[in-house]
Amino acid sequence: MGADPGPCARALGRKDRAGCLVRRASLALARLEDHHAYAACALRGHVQGRHRRLVEVIPFFNGTQVRKAVSPESALEAVREAFIAYARGEWTMPPKVYVPAYPEGDFRAMPALGAGHALLKWVTSFPGNPDHGLPTVTGLVLLSDATNGMPKAVLDAGAVTALRTGAAAVLAAETLGRADAETAAVIGAGVNGEAAAQTFIARGRHVQLWDVDRARAEEVAARVGAEVAPGRDEALGADLLVTVTPGRNIVLEEGSLRPGQHASLMGADGPGKAEIAVEELARVRVFCDDWEQASHNGELVHAVEAGVLGRDDVTQLGDVLAGTAEGRKSERDVTVFDSTGLAIQDLAITLAAMERADELDLPNFDL
């Protein structure tokens, strides 16, 4: 009795240019010629309750179902189009709200609007949880219809977050790295580090994996088909580097990145975290996912507070992808991408999952 997202989504896509962008990435919202089609399909997710009221029936994607619905390759293309839609002003995203529960961790509320849908992700980051057998990232994603406010689906936030984090890391590496880059490495073998390694492999790249816990690195490498790096220094020397650490310690000290190298910094996604020294940021070309967010709660905040970086020193990745800003200028450029994680990325993954909802045996519940 689950709602059929396809026709509804297609009806919505006609009204939003972002749907055109997303369509090319298999995330799409195809058009309907029948202007009355939406009214009919809007009722498909409803049944009559015993008091003769309409009851909304919506699907739930657990983590396994999210991963079945969206491959790493599909996730990358979806995130690419989301960056472009956001850069063009076609998707919108209010600032992420942090609810600190330090020193243990924090909660985050992340809203976004695009392609005829609205999304809210309520997600956590508790880095000490694995020591107690619990995941670092947990939460839920709620997708709603932006034309009438009705809920459309609920998804596991951990899986959505991992997919879009891996996608953004590799997308930035491919966009900003050298065209002849040969080696790739991921520092950190947690859930998001595993997703980054999987995405590199899905893109046809051999990847090395390093973690302070070698046993964990070996387990993840065996699961995704990666290689365990001989040592930390070997991993840090890769042409395309992704760091996905808790952000409690500096990974890249001043002078550690060599000419031509790229680093996607995915771990410092909140206040007080850092994976790169301010002095190193000062000597490289810096890119970010969103200036407002990164300059207040990401890797860049430390350099901004120190007066080392300002708005004119940082380029947003979406602007590069949209063709309105320059990326790498030379083979010797050292490029760094600061990722704080965007709700538009979550929306892209969620819409991609919804496209395959009918292929999965999803549980449904009524509201």
Report on the architecture of this protein.
The protein is α/β, with parallel strands linked by helices and 367 residues long. The protein folds into 2 domains: 5-160 and 345-360, ornithine cyclodeaminase, domain 1 (2-Layer Sandwich); 165-341, NAD(P)-binding Rossmann-like Domain (Rossmann fold, 3-Layer(aba) Sandwich). The protein is 35% helix and 22% strand. It is built from 14 helices and 16 strands. It has helices spanning 5-13, 17-23, 37-42, 63-69, 72-87, 157-176, 191-202, 214-224, 232-236, 278-281, 291-297, 300-305, 317-322, 343-355, and strands spanning 46-48, 54-61, 97-101, 105-114, 117-125, 139-145, 151-156, 184-187, 207-210, 227-228, 240-243, 262-265, 285-288, 314-316, 335-338, 364-366. Strands 1, 2, 3, 4, 5, 6, 7 and 16 form an 8-stranded mixed sheet that branches. A hairpin with a 3-residue loop joins strand 3 (97-101) and strand 4 (105-114). Helix 2 (17-23) packs antiparallel against helix 5 (72-87), helix 4 runs parallel beside helix 6 and helix 5 (72-87) crosses helix 6 (157-176). The two termini are 13 Å apart.
